[in-house]
Design a protein that fits this description.
Number of strands: 8
Strand order of the largest sheet: 1-2-4-3-5-6-7-8
CATH class: Alpha Beta
CATH architecture: 3-Layer(aba) Sandwich
Number of helices: 6
Radius of gyration: 16 Å
Helix content: 25-40%
Shape: globular
Distance between the termini: 24 Å
Number of domains: 1
Strand content: 15-25%
Order of helices and strands: EEEHEHHEHEEHEH
Length: about 240
């Protein structure tokens, strides 16, 4: 497997993403744009990119925050993520910049592109889809589903798969119902899988498994959601 950091820009801001590709495979392959949870392009995101590369995809973990901005403490993460939650146009712009990098890579089939996102990264890829990006499919893991512009769902070109913790206190039922209404209204090809006994950040293996906390790792839901993602991409790229 080949991995490397890729520096790129959005406006005047310098960003740095992480590429993972199986360099034993010849030709062009489907590209997956990955946006991480609120820690940015850190070890979890890089590990997931490598897992995607092992499945035969070209995976690019894109950068929302900027080169060198890799918060580790709760308050710092909340502050950085909050900037983009409050400014969805900036969020969409960051998504577009990452997608441009992925599309330009010589290993990537530019006609077979999809996106995944974790937590705030999932919110970002949904906003990117609402912005009309050429993505065949989008998968979110424990993402906030709200948007200030639900009317933009009519711009979604690909299929949507939302993988959600049924007990996630950060994404309440009212938000889920509003998202479902948004998707129905725009006649999007969408799915939502809700995992029982599962809270926020259920794919983050660095967390403990205490379900009484707002965020906790859940081995079953992590495994099941990855299987669901794989089946979704097999369908999307068939």
């Amino acid at each position: 497997m080949q991995t490397r950091d890729i520096e790129y820009k959005h406006g005047s801001d310098i960003l740095e993403g992480f590429l993972a590709v199986d360099d034993t495979k010849v030709g062009r392959h489907p590209g997956i744009l990955l946006f991480p949870e609120w820690y940015g392009v850190a070890e979890h995101a890089k590990a997931r990119a490598k897992m995607l590369a092992e499945l035969g995809y070209v995976a690019f973990a894109a950068d929302m925050y900027g080169k060198g901005v890799r918060p580790t403490q709760f308050d710092d993460c909340a502050r950085e993520a909050g900037k983009y939650q409050r400014d969805r146009q900036l969020m969409r712009g960051r998504g577009r910049a990452g997608l441009d990098v992925l599309r330009s890579l010589p290993e990537v089939d530019p006609h077979k592109l999809a996106g995944i996102g974790y937590c705030v990264g999932g919110t970002l890829v949904l906003e990117l889809a609402r912005d009309g990006a050429d993505l065949s499919g989008v998968v979110t893991f424990h993402a906030a589903l709200n948007t200030p512009r639900p009317q933009d769902a009519k711009n979604i070109k690909g299929r949507i798969l939302v993988l959600h913790g049924a007990d996630d206190p950060l994404v309440p039922d009212t938000e889920v119902l509003a998202f479902e209404k948004e998707m129905r209204g725009a006649k999007v090809d969408w799915q939502l899988v809700s995992y029982g006994n599962t809270v926020h950040s259920f794919t983050n293996w660095d967390l403990d498994s205490d379900h009484s906390k707002p965020a906790a790792y859940n081995t079953k839901s992590d495994t099941r959601s990855w299987v669901a993602m794989r089946a979704f991409f097999e369908e999307v790229f068939a």
